[in-house]
Design a protein that fits this description.
The chain is mainly α. Helix 1 runs antiparallel to helix 2.
Length: 398
């Protein structure tokens, strides 16, 4: 059957060169090869489809003289013989043809709108590995001739979410997971954080309910430590605290230093598009270091009668929790917003609060000294477990 084609060689070469010149960068870098191989071996593109709906091919045929007329406007008569017996091509454009125009057609093109001037080109395109040549390449080779610039600078490629057996989710297999059902049962933050922490850039992710439940437990951990903090901050106002008068313990100096280190590493992960690495780092810091170590040690001062020591513990507990919530917010927006609103804070919403700053310089001495304490405690726990010493029984430690 007769079809309409786009001649690809004139379009492919500039799109290929844009990536080779570094004007567009793929993350992970290995996907550059997939993009280049496709464009280097490209064939002419069949753009006509025999579907019921879509953008009609803008070509009319004259039944009297056989003329074929391409027009930007709908026509009512043949421009060759004047006949009114004309019919528009019944085919529609390939859906990727109109999708390829997305970076600029959505911003008011062909008019020189304010949105087009401000938002084009965009900084990052995030998309799946399965549509690099269906969509990414086509957006690039359509944008270059129309806009005389690339449509985006970085292309961040993520994998696909597969079922537990590693199969692509599909209607025919009946193995799809409805995200709304997951959200209803476990919460939106749980699903979001599980997908982020379970992903490695460019690699597929197997959806497993065990992972969802483990992430739900983490959300509960954040919620519970916030409840404990709020119960111990009822008489606390950070505005009345003179930080220079506080006497920080080793645990205080350690957790403040660790927060600063984690904060800087999270930014490094995000800058390199490793969102999973950033999420996992936050998970370990909040669960292992903040909750299981610092908060447990701080309880001795929080529940004690020594007011200056209690006030110092309150300040560090609030300071680390509040800043950690801001660090975690892009990954778990709903839980962090709810908790943050109940903590002493500045501003209307955590969503527009500034990203947290480090808590001073990294204290390597405090980190090393506290690491020794952790090692000793773990050693004692392991020895007790091996010797089957009951948890209720005191043991002499040498």
């Amino acid at each position: 059957s007769k079809q309409w084609f786009v001649k690809m060689q004139p379009l492919a070469q500039p799109a290929l060169q844009a990536v080779k010149d570094g004007r567009i960068i793929f993350v992970p870098e290995r996907f550059t090869q997939i993009y280049c191989q496709w464009l280097e071996n490209i064939r002419d593109w069949c753009i006509s489809r025999q579907l019921w709906w879509g953008h009609r091919i803008p070509v009319w045929y004259c039944r009297d003289c056989g003329a074929e007329i391409a027009s930007r406007e709908d026509i009512t008569s043949c421009c060759a013989c004047g006949s009114s017996k004309i019919d528009q091509d019944p085919d529609v454009l390939d859906t990727w043809f109109s999708s390829a125009l997305w970076p600029f057609s959505t911003l008011g093109w062909p008019e020189e709108t304010a949105d087009l001037g401000y938002f084009y080109p965009t900084s990052v395109l995030v998309t799946g590995r399965d549509i690099i040549f269906f969509w990414v390449a086509r957006m690039i080779f359509m944008a270059l001739p129309f806009m005389d610039d690339v449509p985006f600078r970085d292309v961040f490629i993520h994998g696909l979410v597969l079922d537990a057996q590693g199969r692509k989710m599909s209607k025919s297999l009946g193995n799809g997971i409805d995200p709304l059902e997951v959200i209803e049962k476990y919460g939106a933050d749980t699903l979001r954080f599980m997908l982020i922490t379970g992903s490695v850039p460019g690699y597929d992710l197997r959806f497993q309910w065990e992972r969802v439940e483990a992430t739900r437990n983490f959300a509960n951990k954040v919620w519970n430590v916030a409840r404990l903090a709020l119960l111990n901050l009822e008489d606390f106002d950070p505005k009345k605290i003179d930080v220079s008068t506080l006497e920080f313990t080793l645990a205080d100096r350690w957790i403040r230093s660790r927060f600063s280190t984690v904060r800087n590493r999270v930014i490094e992960f995000i800058d390199s598009y490793d969102l999973g690495g950033a999420g996992r780092l936050l998970y370990e810091f909040i669960w292992d270091e903040f909750c299981d170590w610092y908060v447990e040690l701080a309880k001795l001062r929080l529940y004690g009668d020594d007011r200056p020591r209690r006030q110092t513990a309150q300040y560090v507990l609030w300071e680390v929790l509040e800043r950690t919530l801001r660090l975690l917010h892009p990954f778990m927006p709903f839980v962090t917003e709810e908790i943050w609103q109940h903590l002493p804070h500045t501003g209307e919403s955590i969503m527009i609060a500034p990203y947290p700053e480090p808590m001073g310089e990294q204290d390597l001495t405090a980190e090393a000294d506290f690491a020794l304490i952790q090692e000793v405690v773990r050693g004692i726990r392991n020895a007790r477990a091996e010797m089957e010493v009951p948890p209720t029984r005191r043991a002499r430690v040498i």
